[in-house]
Amino acid sequence: MVNLYSLFHLNSSFSAIENKDLPKVIDRCYWPLLNLIDENNLCLNIESSGSTLLDIYRIDKSWILKLKKILKKKNCEFIGSGYRQIIAPLAPYELNLFNIRKGNLIYKDLIDNKPEIAYVNEQTYSKSLINLYKKNGYKTLIIDWNNSYSANQKWNHKIQYYPQKIIDDYDNSINIVWNNSINFQKFQRFIYGEINKKEFLKNLKKIKNKDYFFSLYGSDAEVFDFRPKRFFYEKKENLKEWIKIKNLLIELKQNKFYKLVKISHVLKNKKKFQFRNKETITNSKNPIIVKKQSKYNSTRWALSGRDDLKINTFCWKMFDQIKNKKKDRSWTKLCDLWSSDFRTHLTDMKWRELNNKIKNIRIKENIKDFNYSKCKYRYKLNDNNENINISSKNIFLVLNKKKGLTIKEFFQKKIINKNIFGTIPQGFYNHIDYDVDFFSGHFTHEYENKKDTDINYNFKKYKIKETNNSVLISAEGKDRRINFTKNIEVDFSKNQINFEINFKKIKPNVLRLFHVTINPKIFNSKELFYATNNGGKKLEYFGLDYKNEFNHGDRVSNIVSSRNCLGATEGKIIIGDKTKCLEIVIYRQFSAIMPMIQYKKIKNNYLMRIFFSASETDDTYKSCIKNIRSRISLKLKKL
User: What pTM value is reported for the model?
Assistant: First the structure.
């Protein structure tokens, strides 16, 4: 018979649910779920964050006692996740580790359970999660099939019906059980009355192989008989949806061709349609896998919402302040603030409460401004009508004054006497779609069908100042929509260049900074890679080749402005080959900008650019006026 498994995800911090409504959620959503299992002897799976169990215990202890009792009967399985629903690929390793460990302690304390299967938060997966969860006693992860398959379209589609093993860059492996976005969305649509039973069961009835494991449902419990009010069109009526769920599951249970099973039962069949080799799932185009359609991607929690940049910048500042401390209270507060639910459809009341929490936490600013003095390093500065040239024993930099102080060339002569990044002139690629100038060091700002960029500025006025170790070029730009200060610092002591930009009262939809266009002659194209941290302790490596062309900043639709971003959770991105690499550092104490990469093979060359976003749009985005100050540094290193 076909094995059907269902998981109901409990989240008391659901962004669009007011705290005052939690008793209603417990009564209308959580109790019906337990009663469904207990009274009908249905084999289902429940997942909850530790904080959700604590919330339920605070409001209704009897529910926790009932869950504990049901788990002992062994027809229900509890699936773990962590203390808070944190997007692990976008958060620092130490916080992720604390979050999972704290969740496990709560599970043990409240329901006497030590789960070995984890439901990955928001189904947002990176390679680093394997080691994170294994370190905390987990043997299996539940992640989204549809987006994993989309990133690896050579896979046999039958793989989705069996457990698999996946691997990271360091030979750590873990079991995978698939969740299915399409299946759980259809389940919701059937329960809502948007599709009929025949249409809902269509995919299920296609299955003739009795050995298959089919993901029937794997999402929120709070969306049945309760409406979180994220969207104006959500129905408010009580449609007795849990009764409809009960009738469906009982009908399937009574059908001799189907069997409702625990997720641990899925792991017992490891024979058919296994990967030939352990797979990594993620790749350079898809470094972070997310659930559902393309409008759901990692920028949803990094750069959109009411003001994700503000919240994330504060979290990074707080992390920087407590990372060497062991006080659980501080780490718990930071976990609370890093919750994904503060970054999507947050209610007005929750937004005010969040801002009050932030105001009540004291953070020491760790931003050092330039201290002007005479530079102790020898250098030459040539200032002509078009360019500013700065040269020293090791560095050569050319800034284009007529194009917003963009970078024409940047050399580090001791490593390689070639341009590392800068401007690729029109005609270089001899391809009509790419015969334009590709600049470096500039920003683009989109708002209300208009586009601003500092490339349009001819900086006739600018300041040249020295510090002890560097020379600084500073210029100001201003028009009706935008007001900014741009700084380019050449640090001779570290052999690096620093970019900084400061926007005053900007109202961005899409704001991308510090575009860096790599010289395609600087790295061996056959060995080209990028590496960064996506929530883990170690770097994740991604090879680049013509088969995997991509642009993380490509639009999905008129509403959704991008497709992906890198976590860069240790603040670094590396681009290179086997002998050398360009190391880029993000200073998130300024602002939590997120890196994106574009890669395209063009004839015998390639176009590779990295840029940093401070704002993206999607269905969660709300426009606001803000000040944004951002900084990165770049240097070439030998490997």
Answer: 0.95
